[in-house]
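Lab meeting, action items carried over

1. Structure of the two-component assembly. Owner: GW. Status: complete.
Input record:
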Amino acid sequence: MADIRCPMCGKPNAEEAETCLYCQARLKPVGPGAAPPGAAEPSAAGGEGVPDWLSRLRDQGSPTPSGTRELSGEREGPSDEEASDWLSRIRTRSDEESPAPSSAASPAEDMFGRGKPAEPSGPVPAFGPSAEEVPPASAATPPAEPASAEDDPEWLRRLRTRRAVEGTPGAAPAPSFPAPQTTGEGLPPDWMHAPHEDLATGPTAAPVPRPAGGEGSVPDWLRDVQPPAPAPAPIPFASEDDELRGAYAEKEIPDWLAAAREEAAAPVDVVDLASPPAAPIETPSLEELLAPGVLPEWLTAGSSPTPPPVEAPGESLEQAVLPPWLRAMRPVEGPLAPKGEAGEAEERVESAGPLAGLRGVLPPKVEAEVGRHPPVLPSLLDIQPAHAAHAELLQRIVSTPESRAVPRARRRAQARPWGGLAVSLILVAAMSVPGVTGTSVFARPSVIAVETLQTANLINSLPRDRPLLLAVDYDAAASAELEAAALAVLDHVMTVGAPIASVSTRPVGAALAERLIARTRAAHPQYQSGVNYLPLGYIPAGPIGLRAFAANPWQAVYGQSAPEGWDAAMVDALHTSSNFSAIMVVASDPAVLQAWIEQVHTAVPSVPLVAIVSAAAEPLARPYYESAFPSVQGMVVGLAGAEAYECLNAFDPASGRCGRLGVADSMWDAFGMAVLAAVLILLVGGLASVIRRGVISMRRTSHE
Amino acid sequence: MSDVAAAALGFFLTVAILSYVLGDNVLFRIAAHLLIGVTAGYLAAVAWQSVLWPQLFGRMLNLTAWLDPALWIPLILVLLMIGRSTPRLSVLSSVPMAFLVGLAAAVAVGGALTGTLIPQVAATAVSLSPVRQSSGGVFLDLEGALSNLIILVGTVTTLAYFHFGARPRAGEAPARPLWVAPLARVGEIFLAVAFGALYAGALAASLTALIDRVVFLQQILGRLLP
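Predicted assembly:
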């Protein structure tokens, strides 16, 4: 058995349960197609628990015979005079026009709209037509004149007249009398639960026997005015509630219901709901129905803009006044249902939850807002031609990215390297000639520059107790030129035996200084690190470091105790810059030489400064040497100065020639050839440029 | 073995650098990147070994050294300089940067005055008279006089060349004063000669470097080839 889940607490309940076992909420909707909650229960306990208003309604609407009252336990209701006049008229008419009970012509459809077929072996309700008694739906019944036509309402008379003229076949439905309340217990009567959809639903195509009370809950006047609706799907088996309801109804048939059945069986005012009407039924307008005297008072209460006319006391029963909440729950299956939004709001019947059965409680707006799509604004944009052009352009750009891609920046065509390659080949060839042939083309310099001689003289005068400060401030790219000059001078220094302390303002200077010392120490092994050679390392911060070095060389470089093995006397001598015997700056950049002159030599002007500079730095270094107050006391410039210094170191006075060859001498011939080639290239190039310009000028002159 | 490997690596790098004569190529880029990377690593090692450790961190191990402001003041400046690595704290580095720039400017200006400007101005204050007086008597020094004259003319005209003052004239382009224009023209000649001398020195230095590499290649090939 499948369980149904309570809409309130969410707990599972048995499928046949009407109310939740846990929270007592109603499980089965009371709306369309729902079974009355107490249809299967006998009204044994209905007497005491019925409220007064309900008892009053029962009394007014159902002149129950004594037998019925005994079974239901109700107190004796009002007499016929106390009933409403229209009910009395219906009852009277039924008694007169339908003396014999006849089956209802309506096909099988219970009063709850389920359309359940009755089981063949099941009990057949006595007040309802059995399967055998149900005549064919298409059987035409001639209309009969009512016994008391004068007493009928106006609208009923018009309907009868119209159908008499049209000759509409069909069986007369049972009067829409309220069924007797079987459950009691404060629940509204079944006719209140009967949804208007059920009442509006036409007979099913299948000949299903109608269970008890099938048409009894629908007034004939309502059935007449409502259009036929599509039939619901037939349910093959009847429920147990239907069987019980049929058994109960078979035994307890109230007189008024029997009279209504007889009236329904009468061929008068019968509309064949099983078959579609031949012609559309003319539905009376709302104004006609709301006219005084057309509808019962309780139907028009609250719907008519004008208060209903009050009948004189004694002529009819006192008009029942429905409580507001009951008025809100009244059936709206009739034409009184308002149309439009208000009508939709009132027609809405809650089918589940605590509001089950209530109508018009929740506004339809809540449901309308659920899942509402954003409104689609009408396209009222005024598109200008410029906007359209821009949109078209954007679409073209997006659609064809490849064709619209920005072309890559054209790579700048490299100049053909043939010119540079030719010059390089010429220079390399010129340089290689001395080495390949082993010939010496260029003689050693016979004249020694003055600055070189002064440098040699200065080195010769160096003391052996004070260190020579060697500043290696050049890059590896200038090592070929400056190493040759520095090696020649250092060879001289080591020959003299002056201690050396190396330092540099460039990070790579320390390594280059170590390289210089290593290459020179090969010929002078007496030089040991820490004894007569002190590598001080790197001086950071450029000119600021040089200024600090001039103030305290040891503090600026080391700042702590000397490494182990170092000569203490040498270390002590490094605490004052004036203790240096000379400062020899090996620089490829004239700015570095300028910094040494400005920051150190100005601090210790008594210490001579020797500059070993590149040929490229000579024009800027020479003013410091040739000044009236020279800052540089000696210079060795480039490879030429190195070759001259080597010659001085190995000069043989006996032969008058340079003796031992050094690094500079090994490059001297190649250097001479390269310079010669370069000069020739410059001359040829300059001459070619002049000739070209002359030719171009001559062509212009001839053209002009 | 290490000499052979070093010689082979030097040969390869030399050829790779010289291949630039054919244009930018992969070998040149490899050699350049390798040189830059090695230099950067070497700089970091030198900075730690020669500066940071002996000047700062090595001294921090000695607790008594903390009493010396020469230790913690540079430490504070270093910490402020580290803030330059993050944009949020980069403003902190303005303090040590201002300290460095100001100190360097003061040191450079002071050294330039005493080491370059005053001596060079004094060097141009030469006598143009060819008559020289020595212990041996009075003699004519025409060469010296001509040299001094060239120095004077060259100094004045070169300074005139760098005179960029010009008065605007109605309907005409601004021009130098009439007495400055010829001096500037002469000074331009002196500048051309000076730049020529610089170019010659640069060419000589470059040729020397090329010769060193060519000689090195010849030595390597002489070892490999019979």
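2. GW to write a short summary for the group page. Key points so far: Chain B has a mean pLDDT of 87. Helices of chain B lie at 2-18, 26-60, 69-82, 94-124, 142-161, 181-224.
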